[in-house]
Amino acid sequence: MKTVRIAVWVAVLLMAGILGWLTLNVTKTKEAVSEGPFGVPFTLVAQDGKPITEQAFRGKPTALFFGFTHCPEVCPTTLFEMNGWLEKVDPDGKKLQAYFVTVDPERDTPEVMNEYVSNVSKRIVGISGAPDKIADVIKGYRVYAKKVPVDESNPNGDYTMDHTASVFLLDSEGRFSGTIAYGENPDTAVKKLENLVSKG
């Protein structure tokens, strides 16, 4: 009976050790994920027609927004507000950068992005690219985007896009650092960007 009891205790201690080791490794894995850059590698096209990669989101903290130029309200409002936040938090443009990635590459060519974004801001850079590459980026950055026909009876006609309306905040190493929600209090948005800059 005593031998059985000892065997049970040995088994319990062994299981506890295994569970402890697994927990430690899972925690380390999660930390490694959170410490790595957000999103996926990509090669797209900036509004000036030059190639741009995920390395653009390094070196300075970044405000990153996904939208499209035919957007009736959310996108123009967000871009206008972003420009104001940037001017307030970093008037010289040396500490903070911002990008606008299209979720509608079929219509939003680099030329269209350049005209659209330049009318709102000199601080925000528009990004477009091939539809398949944009789709990979949308998925990799965990953005929701869906084409919605304006007229359901004509699915191949004019369309709009449903999409994530938050601004993603990345630190200078490209790591996820939070979001600014659509319609967020302007003072809160500015404070979040100030915190992002101070964190580096």
UniProtKB/TrEMBL annotation:
Residues where Cu cation binds: 71, 75, 163
The keyword Manganese is assigned to this record: no
Pfam families for the chain: SCO1-SenC
S-S bonds: 71-75
Keyword hit for Disulfide bond: yes
TM regions (residue ranges): 6-24
MF terms in GO: metal ion binding
Domain Thioredoxin: 33-198
Keywords: Copper, Disulfide bond, Membrane, Metal-binding, Transmembrane, Transmembrane helix
CDD domains linked: SCO
PROSITE patterns: THIOREDOXIN_2
Family: Belongs to the SCO1/2 family.
UniProt name for this protein: Copper resistance protein CopZ
